Amino acid sequence: MTERAPRLADPGLIGLLGFVIATLTAQLEHLGLQNESPVFWVGAVFGGVVQVTAGMLSYFAGDDFHFIVYNAFGWYWICMPGFLLGGELGFFEVEGPARGVFTLMFSILALVFALSAASRNTVLPVTLLAVAVGLGLQTITAFGGPAAAGAAGSVALLVASALAAYMLLEKFYTRTLGRSILPLGPAWFRPASPVSIQAHTV
């Protein structure tokens, strides 16, 4: 009689939790509703450590998509507190166009990730598109554009945070109640079969 493999927890639970809390905290600061101190600690812990942990656990689960997404945005959030610390202490400061280049890279990455996400459901690619738009608008402000663009970017990122919270609830209830009670919408297209994907792997 073969032993049944133990059921493992889904790393996406903590990955989404980290994204939601860090993004919400940062955008409240960008909109002037709190100061930078919570962004430093919450960003480093929930945005950084928690998301990187989720990404590495996804590696062991063989989940390429979440491995790169959680690691990318996890390390983004590890860098952001460093930017804040440099600004406070006056060394290795990253401001203006340099900050804009950084956010622009992650805006583009979110677009890249959205294409693959569209093969899963509707909410996930919409979330990543909201991230791309939000970071793109904040990039405009970083390059000297109007502050209103950055504020609009914060609103788009708050939308992304709300959508991620919705996915977190869907995943949590599905895993703990044994049935899906929150719809994520249909995938926009079907991915290639696993055999086709393997054939294109070098």
UniProtKB/TrEMBL annotation:
Domain of life from the UniProt record: Bacteria
Signal peptide stretch: none
Pfam (any one): Gpr1_Fun34_YaaH
Membrane topology annotation: Multi-pass membrane protein
Keywords: Membrane, Transmembrane, Transmembrane helix
Main location: membrane
Transmembrane segments: 12-33, 39-61, 73-92, 98-116, 123-143, 149-169
Keyword Lipid biosynthesis set for record: no
Keyword Magnesium: no
Compartments, as annotated in UniProt: Membrane
Coiled coil: none
PANTHER family assigned: INNER MEMBRANE PROTEIN YAAH, SUCCINATE-ACETATE_PROTON SYMPORTER SATP
Sequence similarity: Belongs to the acetate uptake transporter (AceTr) (TC 2.A.96) family.
Protein name: Succinate-acetate transporter protein
Source organism: Microbacterium arborescens
Upper taxonomic lineage: Bacteria, Bacillati, Actinomycetota, Actinomycetes, Micrococcales
